[in-house]
Amino acid sequence: MEQPRPLPMIRGQRVYLRASERGDIPTFVRWLNDRETASFLSSRAPLSEPLEERWFERMLESQGRTAYHFVICLLDDDRPLGTIGLFNIDYVDGNAGMGIGIGEKALWGKGLGTDALLALLDFGFGELRMERIWLEVFDFNPRARRSYEKCGFVLEGTLRRAKHRRGEFHDIHVMAILRSEWQAQDRQRSWELEDGAAQES
């Protein structure tokens, strides 16, 4: 008899977040070796699986300590579509950085990144007791900035000409959301969606 799939611990309306597995490495490498995808991240050169395996080992050491790294999956079919996580977690001052990348380009522009980010905010503020979650977005990525603004992030400042890309320098915008701003959002939280799914089953 087939075992039922566990209810996702961190979920949004259409996606859920799960821990990274070693078997995800080839998928990560495929995403990061795509020129268009990599241009919005920090990748500058082709990536090999051995290099990503090194990163994976470092990630395991930091997971649950100074960082949390998750794979974004579709609720409908468990298909991975990107990664998201918190880093530089400071449990004393309640600060954490946030990063996200949607690797499946066919799913860009469908609101799935926004859905995943809201779920991550629920985890950061609701479970880790963060006070402020911040991110950096390049000036040539207005689509991402719009998504962050939808989730409640506010522009805090600009690092002028701090990113070099394809022979030109670009600004990096620093955005953040505070606990009080997250609390003021009129929406269901990740754990409320889980409760609803549990009641329906």
Descriptive report:
The chain has 201 residues and is α+β, with helices and mostly antiparallel strands. It has a single domain (10-200), classed as Aminopeptidase, CATH 3.40.630.30. It is built from seven helices and eight strands. The protein has helices at residues 25-32, 35-39, 49-62, 112-126, 142-150, 179-183, 190-200, and strands at 10-11, 15-19, 68-74, 80-90, 95-102, 132-138, 154-165, 168-178. The chain has an eight-stranded mixed sheet. A hairpin with a 3-residue loop joins strand 1 and strand 2. The model is unreliable at 196-201 (pLDDT under 50).
What is the compact description of this entry?
With 201 residues, the chain is of the alpha+beta class. It contains seven helices and eight strands; from the N terminus they run ββαααβββαβαββαα.
Topology:
Elements lengths: L9 E2 L3 E5 L5 H8 L2 H5 L9 H14 L5 E7 L5 E11 L4 E8 L9 H15 L5 E7 L3 H9 L3 E12 L2 E11 H5 L6 H11 L1
Parallel strand pairs: 5-6
Antiparallel strand pairs: 1-2, 2-3, 3-4, 4-5, 6-8, 7-8
Helix pairs in contact: 1-3
Note the beta-strand portion. 25-35%
Structural domains: how many:
1
CATH structural architecture: 3-Layer(aba) Sandwich
Largest sheet: 8 strands, mixed
Radius of gyration (CA) equals: 17 Å
CATH topology label:
Aminopeptidase
Shape: globular
> Major sheet: order of its strands?
1-2-3-4-5-6-8-7
Helix content: 25-40%
What structural keywords apply?
201 residues, disordered C terminus, 8-stranded mixed beta sheet, Aminopeptidase, globular, alpha+beta
